[in-house]
From TrEMBL:
<dbReference type="GO" id="GO:0071949">
    <property type="term" value="F:FAD binding"/>
</dbReference>
<keyword id="KW-0486">Methionine biosynthesis</keyword>
<keyword id="KW-0560">Oxidoreductase</keyword>
<keyword id="KW-0520">NAD</keyword>
<keyword id="KW-0028">Amino-acid biosynthesis</keyword>
<dbReference type="GO" id="GO:0106312">
    <property type="term" value="F:methylenetetrahydrofolate reductase (NADH) activity"/>
</dbReference>
<dbReference type="GO" id="GO:0005829">
    <property type="term" value="C:cytosol"/>
</dbReference>
<dbReference type="GO" id="GO:0009086">
    <property type="term" value="P:methionine biosynthetic process"/>
</dbReference>
<comment type="similarity">
    <text>Belongs to the methylenetetrahydrofolate reductase family.</text>
</comment>
<comment type="pathway">
    <text>Amino-acid biosynthesis; L-methionine biosynthesis via de novo pathway.</text>
</comment>
<comment type="pathway">
    <text>One-carbon metabolism; tetrahydrofolate interconversion.</text>
</comment>
<dbReference type="Pfam" id="PF02219">
    <property type="entry name" value="MTHFR"/>
</dbReference>
<keyword id="KW-0274">FAD</keyword>
<dbReference type="GO" id="GO:0035999">
    <property type="term" value="P:tetrahydrofolate interconversion"/>
</dbReference>
<dbReference type="InterPro" id="IPR003171">
    <property type="entry name" value="Mehydrof_redctse-like"/>
</dbReference>
<protein>
    <recommendedName>
        <fullName>Methylenetetrahydrofolate reductase</fullName>
        <ecNumber>1.5.1.54</ecNumber>
    </recommendedName>
</protein>
<dbReference type="InterPro" id="IPR004620">
    <property type="entry name" value="MTHF_reductase_bac"/>
</dbReference>
Amino acid sequence: MKIDSIFKKKKPILSFEIFPPKKEIALLNIDETLKSLSELNPDFISVTFGAGGTTTNNSTVEIAKKIKHEYNIEPLVHLTCINYSKAEICDILEQLNDAEIKNILALRGDINPEFPRKNDFTYASDLVSFIKQYGDFCISGACYPESHIEAKNVSEDILNLKKKTDNGVSHLISQLFFDNNLFYSFNNKVRVAGVNVPIEAGIMPVINKTQIDKMISLCGASLPTDLRKMIQKHENNCDALFDAGIEYAIDQIKDLLEHDVEGIHIFTMNNPIVARKICEGIRPLL
Ligand code: FAD
């Protein structure tokens, strides 16, 4: 089922994100992860796409096929474009068509000097137009409650987001954020700008300090004071940080649901225990 049809049936929706494991052995264990995640009945599971043509890209499509055909859950395939030619993107779209996979998260991809850029696509909106011309896919896009790290300012970033939805994006997933007020303010501005598609809130539980520091340095998300203090308090106690991080994520989601968020997208980091604990905390509200 296309994701825009799921939104027509129910709101809020719940979705998970996983990444293709880099190591061969971990790839073999992906079934365990998928089995546990599927028991939590998400509306869809998205699979990230390795940057710059790394070997994980093939496994993105393979894992998405498993999600659809072995676990009967809708997959959303992430697809980046700046390191690819139109012919290479066509090849992936053909694989998706053959596998009856209908949902794509169209992304530009991060600019990384390690991976040469190709000239066929500059922005995610170019990929959106290309996919629209190619065939019958439901296209999602990324959005940034605290602005994309390269954007000059919020208004410009939102105007660029509008181009993406004008070109055919029918659902957005936000970058991770820890301060719900930033998400609410972004939502208001985006609606005023005429972006009317459903927006899912991207939630990343803080369960590992190194991991979260890395994510924040990459995407520029800000840490509210209470969360910063919580991390400082538990940074040398993994179990306590895990529990406090899950509790913070549950509270964040509860507040979003009270504010009528259209969807919750959990960056599971391939950890079904994290997803399960959060789901147990929020299920009565969904
Ligand atoms: P765009 O929408 O193209 O925006 C990029 C920048 O260009 C922004 O600053 C924007 O304001 C500007 N811009 C856009 N259009 C125009 C225009 N027409 N004129 C001028 N400026 C413009 N990366 C991966 O490699 N693999 C993944 O699987 C992956 N999954 C992600 C999932 C989510 C939910 C999110 C939020 C991000 C994900 N990313 C992933 C990261 C993403 O690739 C980066 O954030 C990337 O830097 C921007 O991608 P985008 O699609 O948002 O780009």
